[in-house]
Amino acid sequence: MHNACHGGLPFTLLIQSIELREIRLPLVHFFETSFGRTTERRIVLARLTDENGVEGWGECTAGEGPFYSDEWTDTAWATLHEFLAPMVLGQQIESAAHVFSLMRPVRGHRMAKATIETACWDLEAKNAGVPLWKHLDGTRSEIACGVSIGIQDSPEMLLEKIRREVDAGYQRIKIKIKPGWDLNIVERVRREFPDIRLMGDANSAYKLSDVPLFQQLDQFNLMMLEQPLAHDDIFDHSVLQRQIQTPVCLDESIHSAEDATHALSMHSCKIINVKLGRVGGHAEAKRIEKAARNHEIPIWCGGMLESGIGRAHNIAMSTLAGFTLPGDVSASARYWEEDIIEPPVRVSPRGTITAPDAPGIGFAVNLQRIEALTVRKEMIK
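Given the sequence above, the corresponding structure tokens read:
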């Protein structure tokens, strides 16, 4: 860990103001999962300013409704405004790694907490004059990228989208599945693309009684099946994993390093998807990454349709040693006509993103663009 220094002396974080904004950002194409279809993101951003006027930015990854998790845009806004921001404001904080503990009196609400926590890491890295990914002890300057493709109106549209992403160089294709859009779809995709790294994401749409279906999916050489069973389950997944060859990947049911350790000791999965918001920020993501390395299982970074600020934080996290599989971090242009950062996130023809060299998240925040998209803002001092 780098100790940010002024004149050789370590200094603490002192947050003088927290500005919350809600922006509305329309998606280029709708995104559909087993929960439903999204066409526009309502995103809460936090801008934290310290006593020297240095700014740190964080993004809340909660969805527009309480479907992926029990958090959503309006609960995040209220929780940040009423409880979390006042807990952090004006405190002498030892380091960004300690911010989460200040918010511990509030139960749950990890996505709201991560909004502030990640902004503190950005701020601390800027004060230290280092890129966030190095400040987090990342080990690689380039990360491998995959894409997540939602449920489409027809199998043909899905195949066409996959072809476009494969041609663009992405190293892994994730397709959303749900009952009625599963076995035949995977079979068609595999027939068309026999060699791609392919995975299915069920977003908790199945039950343990569906084991025969998953046994049939074994023949298609999938990298993994993501969260096939209940969103809060690790027990049934353990039963399922014993009966299928395809690795189970847990997502929604892992909120902490403790959850990860329990799931791994029960052999409930062979892979974990880490989402910054779901786990409460960078400090917890680092703990999970360490637990996964200790158990010698791979992890990867999941996406939540983030704008550029959240995407930049995902890039930084993905440079940690344990993140050995391509994540969901893809180019800005796949989602937005115009992102809120400059330059936009770009993916190389071989499906990689280079971690930026500039201090903090490493991208410039486009305030004009954010201002134009803002539907409400609140300054907490």
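The two ends are 29 Å apart (CA to CA). Try to locate this feature in the token string yourself.
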